[in-house]
Amino acid sequence: MLQIAATELEKEESRRETEKQNYLSEHCPPLHVPGSMSEVQELCKQLHAKIDAAEEEKYDMEIRVQKSSKEALLGSKHKVCMDLRANLKQVKKEDTEKERDLRDVGDWRKNIEEKSGMEGRKKMFESES
């Protein structure tokens, strides 16, 4: 039984190899490397043009796939609402005593200006005593 399987694998392997050779002979002509420098440069230009065409096609296919997958995820009828402010909740802020006290204190720069200089120090001592 193992011998039969081994022979079948060998036949399959040889069949694949012949198919590969046939495909390559049909689609890939043998490479002819020219002798002069100008011919080599021309060959390189042709190869680069073919590469550019293949890259453009690949890019177009990728964009199509991304677009189709996005439409499949979101659905064709679904529209994305980008108005974020409309989706926010409004919350009323309660006025607490601490917040009122903080607002009543005022600007900290005014307190520093009042305490700066000799008059400010004098006021500090007068207020403490």
Automatic annotation (TrEMBL):
Alphabetically ordered keywords of this record: Acetylation, Actin-binding, Muscle protein
Span list, region Disordered: 1-21
GO cellular component terms given for this protein: troponin complex
Extent of Basic and acidic residues compositional bias: 8-20
Any one biological process term the GO annotation gives: cardiac muscle contraction
Highest taxon above the source species: Eukaryota
Subunit structure and binding partners: Binds to actin and tropomyosin.
Name of the featured protein: Troponin I, fast skeletal muscle
